[in-house]
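The record is given unchanged here:
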Amino acid sequence: MKGIFLGYRGTAGQVERIELGWVENNNTLCKENETPDLIYCNDNGFYDLGLNLKNKFPSAKLIFNVLDIPKKYYPEINLEDLKDKLKKADIITTISKFSQDQIKEYLNLNSNIIFNPIKNVANINIKREIDFLYIGRLYEPNKRFSLALQALSLLNINKNQFLIAGPDDPGHGLNYIGCVDDKTLNLLYNKSKILICTTEYGVLGLPPIEAVICGCIPILCKDNPAVQEFKLDNFAFPPNPNEIAKAIMEINKEKLQPEVDLVGKNLFNLLNKNKIAKNIEELI
């Protein structure tokens, strides 16, 4: 089948990985003026372009993917406009059970879950020299980065033991290395003992999942519904600094590592690019 994939590209995007999985599954990317079987829009910034292509190629299946509906933090979001656009798609997809429930609650529309594909990560069995790792944005309200800082402050760790990578500089003399490429990211996961992710509000993000695949122990919060969806319950704790600090102090790595490895294997099978591309193909 021939597909057109629209969405943000680069380190933070998903589309290039979906395209690669699509091609590796013996499909093709549509060339200019060829008629596609599929027009896939990974996020709402590309819905209008997708609709224009649908008008040009009416036989193609148009998929609109919804990353989430952050109404809790952005109450001014125009739900009617979003609903009107989504109704023009042949198929609506979304990245989690939580966001699927949002679409039903706020828009009364049905959707199919297609998870975001993981990056090219794997457990390469090297020495873990980084005690604590944080990957991603810091200042979006649902990230609760201050909760991670408060928990680690109770452990009296040296600032150099906590490595932060992503687009937001935390300042305060913390060990921040900025954004990293995918190869470096894989090394960071493999060199780290623990990844801290205090995100709430349903969409967990890829770093905790990728970290587990690389054998790194995640520390998560119980109030994020995605923890259960991805079978990460045993790595989740109440969202307060004392409970998180206590959990870190009580970690028995030798006892926990077999579970980390098993969960990581299952998540890789669920979220690798070829599996995600196949799931999209089966919707058409």
Observations:
- DSSP finds eleven helices and twelve strands in the chain.
- The longest strand covers residues 61-66.
